[in-house]
Amino acid sequence: MINVANVLTVGRVVLALGTVSLLFVPGEQFRWVAFGATIFVIWADGLDGYFARKLKQTSKLGGILDIAGDRAVELVYWIVFAVLGWVPVWIPILFVVRGTFVDAMRSHAAEDGFTAFGAKTMMQSKVGKFLVASNFSRFSYAIAKAVAFCLLIAANTEAGGATVVPAIANFCVYFSAAFCVVRGLPVFFEGDNIFVFKPAVDVAQSESKK
Length: 210
Fold this sequence. Notes:
Elements: H1 4-21, H2 28-43, H3 47-54, H4 60-83, H5 90-110, H6 126-133, H7 135-155, H8 158-161, H9 165-189, H10 203-208
Helix pairs in contact: 1-2, 1-3, 1-4, 2-7, 4-5, 5-9, 6-7, 6-9, 7-9
């Protein structure tokens, strides 16, 4: 039986790759097509989760793949925008570094049965749960990036460039970058004391002492 949710997750990444490739094609119409396709890519973010629940295909792998898909999509856009000169190069670097460390911490927490979100979230404090795991924070962060992606494309068209769209797009870019850091910090501060050395326990030696 085909896992529809996982197919949608991978398909969304492929669509994002195809969409950003249009930004390199000369012609105003291609950028507007990319604008519309970007809206669909963003909207499709919730489809995999919906079908996973609807078809009862939820799984740990599906959750991990969903996060990986979201990460791939956002990095594809940020990197392409930097290549085109629409955002500073440090923007994608920030998202890559933050994403790499956060995903590593979440992978470590998963070994102990914790998840990034939900009832078994690795976040313990109220502030951490609100900034990282709450639906409000996740939705706000996604909206900020979505608006930034769409407006950056619109700002680099003849019609959009002559309006206030570029200014709003730049604000959304830097707001997203700041939000990225703010949502990442709790993972480090609550991430199993990563700055404290804890020697590995020798299981055989521990058993012999019993």
